Amino acid sequence: MASTITGVSVGLGLSCSTTRKLNQKRNPSSSRLSFCSIKMAVSVEEEKKKKSFTLEKSEEAFSAAKEMMPGGVNSPVRAFKSVGGQPIVFDSVKGSHMRDVDGNDYIDYVGSWGPAIIGHADDEVLAALSETMKKGTSFGAPCLLENVLAEMVIKAVPSIEMVRFVNSGTEACMGVLRLARAYTGREKIIKFEGCYHGHADPFLVKAGSGVATLGLPDSPGVPKAATYETLTAPYNDIAAVEKLFENNKGEICGIILEPVVGNAGFIPPKPEFINAIRRITEENNALLIFDEVMTGFRLSYGGAQEYFGITPDLTTLGKIIGGGLPVGAYGGRREIMEMVAPAGPMYQAGTLSGNPLAMTAGIHTLKRLQKPGSYEYLDKITSELVQGIIDAGKKTGHAICGGYIRGMFGFFFTEGPVYNFADAKKSDTAKFARFYQGMLREGVYFAPSQFEAGFTSLAHTAEDIQKTIAAAESVLRQI
């Protein structure tokens, strides 16, 4: 049966005033933290110590890369197309910091796009990987470490009774869609505008302005046949979803969504939204699929489904469960997962799936997250960060809104509120680009796109947060 979302408003405010009020209700002691001290300007002495900011070596390396790799990168957002300027080539990471090939140091809020929740290059994880590597890097056969991580995932995530490990979030979403279609015998799937589920053909779909739009390919090379069965609706729009089911009775295998959108910026669900989606899928004998590649083990140890109290039928995971190594997974109810080969007829395979290095890093990352106070700490530092940036924006005369849940956050240069991708696109992206470049010079690394969520980690310190807010206020006064 569907569960009711409780406490969903906590930390989800999309305006400065709402975020502060919710934070005060949730944790009075943290609301009394001195934002004045957090926002104190970097001293003149510190400014003098700063060496001049240069990206000469990054520029040289990137120029060479463009001759060998499309656009000079292996994933498009890294090319800085939406923020302009010189893409940064990094040399090393540790804790909450990254260092580029020019020797510039940055406080990092990308975290390898989410996996680095306990910090980069954690000593315990590295030590465990070193021991595992002595036994080999890939078996192409079962290993005991798969059992260990599988048991940890099953115990943690409410919806997962059986799990299949793969090598990426894209692969996990490909597998879970095939499984949903195999189990239900239906082909149509609903996804939401602004939600990203990897680059597989069925998911590269434009969301139309109508409530029941048949998808068109977002990328050349994707045939219309591959997206013909993909239906789209605006995120947080219950009526649009109900209309899709009404117009496609008995044809929809399920709904897939990011329970908190991270690939259109940080967009949380309205309190009633996910609860309604659970009800609608049950009424129509369709499956509810949570894509928790970003939110899994980040909003809580049991992911967004534990945080919101809503249990889907199937779940995809990635990022954190590999501790920074390539990994993905999908899982769900036993009766559904037993459709997967070799237990059942739905085929999916992978040479490096369940490889010992990814399993080891995942095991030791999850062990760290089990320690008491981990998510309370993430909540504390992220609330301070978001509130500090929003306050700085308001103080310096900018339209700005934002929100957070535990170690995931985002902000937009618009008054808000932001409930879907259409709202997100009202953000002043040119201003974000100026802000982004200014923050780089101040030694702060955000995702190089207005439409990506940010991430904090257990390695971020109070000093990191203070420096970031001070830098933000300084930059916001200049743009």
What does this structure look like?
The chain folds into 2 domains: 203 residues, Aspartate Aminotransferase, domain 1; 246 residues, Aspartate Aminotransferase, domain 2 (3-Layer(aba) Sandwich), CATH 3.40.640.10. The strands form 3 sheets. An 8-stranded mixed β-sheet has the order 4-11-10-9-8-5-7-6, with helices on both faces. The protein has a 4-stranded mixed β-sheet with strand order 1-2-3-14. The chain has a 3-stranded antiparallel β-sheet with strand order 12-13-15, with helices on one face. It is α/β, with parallel strands linked by helices and 479 residues long. α1 packs antiparallel against α15.
Summarize the structure.
Helices cover 38% and strands 13% of the residues. It has 479 residues and is of the alpha/beta class. The chain is globular, with a radius of gyration of 22 Å.
